[in-house]
Amino acid sequence: MKIGFIGLGNMGAPMAANLAIAGYEVVGFDVTDVTVEGVTSCSDAPSCVSGRDLVITMLPNGSILQKVADEIQQSLKKGAVFLDCSTVDVDTAKSVAAQMAATDIDMLDAPVSGGISGAAAGTLTFMVGGTSKAFTIAEPLFTVMGNKAVHVGAAGAGQAVKICNNMILGVTMIATCESIALGDKLGLDRQKLFDVLSTSSGASWTVNSYFPAPGVGPASPADNDYKPGFAAELMVKDLGLSQQAAEAVNADTPMGAHALALYQKFVGTEDGEGRDFSAMLPRFSARKRST
Ligand code: NAD
Predict the structure, then answer these.
(1) 3-state SS of 229-276?
(2) Global pTM?
């Protein structure tokens, strides 16, 4: 299978490299001048997709995905699979899939969970929307770039699952951080708090696998001065997408909306930019009730 890969950034570069290591013939394109070992560089997006059986995109957002889709559509081989792994809004995922279907291109929306370390290690989880036929064709690649792929429904369903997951993640991280900061002020020992929470009804992924306090729980960005990890601005992006989707389908999501407002403030005016999303803990620790 010949693969074209567009968007060789923090996530795309290691994903493309892993495909090349696995023996696939991979060509790649990025608007910035990047080279990835084992991946042949192309000078533009159309030449990157021409004659390829499967094309992967890993781009910053929906408007860039739309722009790239417009650029490549006429150069894509009929019957090719277009696998978008970016995190974008549900509406763009659906409309680009419909646009591609008009020229016999089968598109999958397959956003990932697992971050930069998961991309490098080939341990990403893919949540995939689109046809079963295209999913079956792409499945061997999911096995190389990740260790789990779930076909969650029709076009757009992958992005929908991603934002539902990350809305829980954003809300529970804030709940975890404010609980630890409260515990500190009540004089609790953080290790003892962790021991109880992680085996009680307060357990969650943010408590058990990503406890946001240094030196407590499994290793996490808290142990590395809150260097991302998963940057707070990416959480702003994903919570924004969940609110955009909730607006579109008239769903009531007050906790998601409040989490978005807190993360926007954190990134915009509270020195949160460039820090891991778990750096909400020192933010809460430094605050008093009225501020
Ligand atoms: P990134 O900014 O490092 O990479 C995006 C790349 O796309 C850049 O190299 C950029 O130059 C390139 N690009 C932009 N416009 C282009 C165009 N028109 N044509 C070709 N290339 C173009 O971002 P990333 O961290 O690799 O994230 C990529 C996607 O994965 C995003 O949608 C993000 O939300 C999602 N994601 C990221 C993480 C993470 O931890 N970084 C985790 C899960 C999902």
Answers:
(1) CCEHHHHHHHHHHHHHHHHHHCCCCHHHHHHHHHHHHHHHHCCCCCCE
(2) 0.95
Q: What pLDDT sits at residue 24?
A: 98
Average pLDDT over residues 225-241: 96
Residue minimizing CA distance to atom 25 of ligand 1? 10
Helices (H), the chain: 12-21, 45-49, 62-72, 90-101, 115-121, 132-145, 157-185, 190-197, 205-208, 232-249, 254-269, 280-285
Query: What per-residue confidence (pLDDT) applies to 37?
Result: 96
Nearest atom in ligand 1 to the alpha carbon of residue 113 is 43
The confidence score (pLDDT) of residue 291 equals 59
| CA 16–ligand 1 middle distance (angstroms) | 13
Q: Which of 162, 237, 265, 288 is catalytic?
A: 162
For residue 290, pLDDT beyond 90: no
What mean pLDDT do residues 160-185 have? 98
Q: Identify which of 39, 59, 124, 125 to mutate to test ligand 1's pocket (most ligand atoms within 8 A of the CB).
A: 59
* Ligand 1, residues at Cβ distance < 6 Å: 6-12, 29-32, 45, 58-60, 64, 67-68, 86-87, 112, 115-116, 230, 234, 237
The stretch 116-137 carries a mean pLDDT of 96
Q: pLDDT at residue 126 above 80?
A: yes
125 phi/psi in degrees, rounded to 5: -105, 130
In angstroms, the CA 127 to CA 217 distance is: 28
Q: DSSP secondary-structure letter at 40?
A: E
Active-site residue 162, yes or no? yes
Q: Atom 12 (ligand 1): residue with closest C-alpha?
A: 7
142 pLDDT higher than 70: yes
